[in-house]
Amino acid sequence: MVPRVESFHDRATGAVSHVVHAGKGAGCAVIDPVLDYEPRAGRTGNESVDRLAHFLADQALSLAWILETHVHADHLSGAQRLKERCGGRVAIGADVVKVQRHFAEVFNPGADFIADGRQFDRLLADGERFAIGDLVFEVLFTPGHTPDSVTYVVGDAAFVGDTLFMPDGGVARCDFPGGDAAELYRSIERILSLPPDTRIFVCHDYMPGGREPRWQTTVADERAANIHYAGLDAAGFVAKRRARDATLEPPTLIIPAVQVNMRAGHLPAPEANGMRYLKVPVDRL
Fold first, then answer.
1. Helix or strand holding residue 152 (H, E)
2. Can you give the residue range of the structural domain that contains 108?
3. CA-CA 20 to 30 A from 69: which of 148, 153, 184, 282?
4. 271 inside domain
5. What is the structure's pLDDT at 283?
């Protein structure tokens, strides 16, 4: 079955959330929901989650799965807020434990945080399939940007997270812990081995050149025109990616985002005074 896709772009972070469904009244999945966050005040908001919830209600969609493509470093996950509003189960690739173990050392989250993926409702294996009504989802491990990056393939559509951007945006950086440019190249080859007319849905768009946001392309267009991939062999790709990564600053929201996202979108537990806190490691990142 050809899935229907409704996408929501968050201009503050460039993130794109996708609702995947088979039509009005059907079950659905939401991929990469966003929790609004104002870093200067440490304030969260629900505007992005509200937009998703309103669409689900308008279309009478039943939320079965909230799917994360990886532990994001550029926005906070709205998975738990969306689950509270609309139900569903939160899932991510099983290699999330690699990311959790690294960042548990960085943020020292306390004894209540166990780095085994239990914060998520389900950890998905490479090649695993699951259905929402007539829609069948397949999980492809596509590491390189992060160790836990996955792509979800549904019918003629592939949701690639940050592994690929639109052709004029290139591909993901590989300088995060566990990232690897050679591994990213292999993951991109895996994605682009899908049929040429496969719809590619990216989960981030930074609007290069000031253009309007875009999030849908095809395997054929990525192969022909991706500015960081097209025309390069593996060695050329790795050299270009590493040179670019050496010039990049950390994402603006990496410190709060990773602490929340490695917890499946849960905020840290309240401390003795009833307040929740996000830590800032000094001279570490």
1. strand 150-154
2. 4-252
3. 282
4. no
5. 87
pLDDT digits (tens, 9 = 90+) for 15-66: 999 999 999 999 999 999 999 999 999 999 999 999 999 999 999 999 999 9
**Residue appearing with tokens 């991929």:** 31
Decide if 285 is inside a domain: no
Indicate whether 285 pLDDT > 90: no
- As a whole number of angstroms, the distance between CA 211 and CA 235 comes to 31
Confirm whether 260 is domain-assigned. Answer: no
CB environment 31-67: b (16+ within 10 A), e (fewer) = bbbbbbbeeeeeebebebbeebbebbeebebbbbbbb
**76 close to 265: Cβ distance less than 8 angstroms:** yes
Of the CA atoms within 13 Å of residue 146, those in its CB half-sphere come to 27
Give pLDDT, residue 284.
Answer: 81
Instruction: List the strands of the sheet with 34-38, edge to edge.
Output: 43-45, 34-38, 76-77
Inter-residue contact 132 to 65 (CB < 8 Å): yes
The number of domains in the chain is 1
